[in-house]
Specification:
Low-confidence stretches: none
Largest sheet: 4 strands, parallel
Order of helices and strands: HEHEHEHEHH
Structural class: alpha/beta
Strand content: 5-15%
Distance between the termini: 73 Å
Shape: elongated
Radius of gyration: 21 Å
């Protein structure tokens, strides 16, 4: 006589008991991070050329609302992520800092383009250009290019989503960035 093993078929939604008698549940933090990553509302801080590329990402061809960036906000109090697209001059730095401070936590920052990352070509020829957004506010994701392609901004937004879903803190997200340089 051969032994038959009792094999159970797993169905979606089936409860699996653990040896201690408890039930395995997903952590509430995982669900919150998933929801947070798929409902990011961007605030645009477009000061020059990269703003045009940002507009194309929001347009019908690339349609960033498919990925959970549904509503671009005009007020920082309703935004989760600020996308800095363009040159930051000394007169605009306090405004950028004020907008960042008005955003509710958790808040994320994307620096888009060479000017937002390092001052770009204007830093060396003009006294009034700030050498990167990270001199004013902390930046979570950098998007290189002059101007970066719309696909690069979509990639940055999706990578920010993955970092939020993984449960990383803002400090861990910043530490996982490659060193900036152009």
């Amino acid at each position: 006589m051969t032994e038959q093993k009792n094999t159970a078929i797993d169905f979606p939604g089936q409860i699996h008991e653990t040896p201690g008698g408890g039930i395995v549940l997903s952590k509430l933090d995982d669900v919150i991070n998933w929801a947070r990553s798929n409902s990011l509302w961007p605030l645009t801080f477009a000061t020059s050329c990269c703003g045009i590329e940002y507009m194309s990402v929001a347009g019908a061809k690339y349609d960033f609302s498919r990925f959970g960036f549904e509503v671009a906000r005009a007020t920082p109090r309703q935004a989760d992520v600020i996308i800095i697209a363009g040159t930051i001059v000394n007169k605009m730095a306090p405004v950028l800092k004020r907008l960042y401070d008005q955003m509710a936590d958790p808040k994320y920052v994307i620096a888009m383009g060479a000017c937002a990352i390092s001052g770009g070509p204007f830093f060396y020829n003009t006294y009034s250009v700030v050498k990167g957004a990270d001199h004013v506010i902390p930046v979570d994701v950098y998007v290189a290019g002059c101007p970066p392609r719309p696909e690069a901004l979509l990639h940055a937004l999706i990578s920010l989503q993955h970092k939020i879903t993984s449960g990383q803190t803002r400090e861990q997200i910043r530490e996982s960035q490659p060193p900036k340089g152009l």
